[in-house]
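Quick question: what would this complex look like in 3D?
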Amino acid sequence: MTRRNIEGSFHLSGGDFTNAGAASSELKSILTNLGINPEIVRRAAIATFEAEMNVIIHAVAGVMYYLITQDTIKVVLNDMGPGIPDIDRAMTEGYSTAPDWIREMGWGAGMGLPNMKKNSDRFKLDSVVGEGTTVEIIIRIKEGKTE
Amino acid sequence: MTLGRVIEILEAEVVVDAIDREMEIRSICSSDLMSDLLHFSSRPKSILITGLNNTQAIRTAEIADIKGIVFVLDKRPDKETVRMAREKGIPLMVTRLSRFTACGRLYAAGLGSCTGEDR
Amino acid sequence: MNVQEIVDALSLEVKTAKGDLSRTVTGCYISDLLSDVMANAKEGEIWITLQTHPNVVAVASLKNLGGIIVTNRRSPEAETLQKAENEGVVIAVSPLSTFEVGGMLYKMLRC
């Protein structure tokens, strides 16, 4: 069975906790409706949700772009945010720069970036302090093929 | 164990009745930190026991395929949280018990952790 | 029951305040939200959490809690450990989940 590539994007507003997660939730429905294996959908949803929350928590605004091909799910998040000064440290489980009030909302445990990486087949992080951060998540739909 | 039995053990009140009480529950996740749930909740058919009664808990349950949420210490979800749970079809329960007592009773009843192997 | 007995029974690894393990534990509180612990935990209770931020020590100290058990193999930051050592707050860690540690402790504290 073949299908055409599907792509789209969502705008994310920093600090908008009411709609936080809505983009990932919609992407999850799209993937589920395509009949993709639930475990792969779950991994994609988790990685995307963490990336979306990072934008909501840390940035002013951002865009989440997705491309679903026959073989892969690719999600790119681009934000206008503070940037990450020390990427190695940010990738360490438990390290977080989120303020206390974010922690009280259930976030800021320092697991976001590690979770994105854990659930991706390929994960790329680029950041410029004072400008923003780009996260690229690639998840294979079919075994043994590359994008 | 059925969801109905979990509700009995926790003396919980059902707030969002998107419920099949015969649904099988295999494990428990208990956390107030969402990334922790996203990281560790690898086992299917889990229920979340938490003190975090906001929309973030609903989103996380949806994303991580968690089958239902119990709020402890009689922490009632607000309207928006209830609305979202209804929309997503995620059952919500509230218990007067603390997280410690809720976990203790379910552990004693033989349920395992969503992070680990069957007991 | 004291902290030492809990450490032994649950095979916890004690990270700080090793001289303060004789303290009596009156109960247990589980939470990862500091404001919740501030509002609801009681003196002498041992606190099970995933939080490893230095502020946990301040909360445990202010509420005069029996100690802190950090679950899921999380290791507290160096600053947290230093603060706990200075204030005589016991931090012990476990590779098990909060649900499992809480479940086992519930059995012990009720017997």
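Answer marked as accepted. Chain B has one domain: 3-110.
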